[in-house]
Amino acid sequence: MLLNAGGLQSLQIMTLITALPFAVIMVLFSISLMKALIIDQNYYDSTFSVTTIPWSGESWKERLKKMVNFKSKSAINDFIDSHVEPALTELKAEFDSNGINAMIQKYDEPLRIEISISHDTVDNFVYGIKCHRKLVAEYFRQERNLPDVEHQKTYFPKTYFGDGREGYDVKYFTKNELISDVLKHYDRFLEIVSQKDNELFISNNDED
Question: Residue 6 pLDDT > 70, yes or no?
Fold first, then answer.
């Protein structure tokens, strides 16, 4: 019928008219995707407050000693028990005194401990430290003027976060530096979730 009404040109025009709404939808989808990618990039690139950088240079001899000694699994577990847990416990008490309900949980195999703050609509804040294993390169072990490593496997306390960001080694941190590090991430968390542009990261905790 279209061919009889106007030939191939009429058919092409009708096709374009039919496809136009879908083209608009695709453009809007592309714009939304770009906005989401920009927000996501800004989220993971957010920097920390310079006032919360942990180490000031104090106890540098003790830090150097830790730097040239590779730790066993039991040594890292002892660090978590003797340094991390007291730090998180003290911080939890201070959160509670400021009206913020924080919770500490401890797990085994591998040993890990975390402090978390639950929310109804915003994603929960989680900061944890776990006993993490890494393999030491053979050439490193054979080098004479490098720290001695008895075994190929070594361990260190590694942070982890509720949003899945990559953690890092905290074996040099004192108790107060550990507390400072948690507050650094909590300050970052509050800054991110309080921004209207980051509503994409609002969770559905209230629907669980």
Answer: no
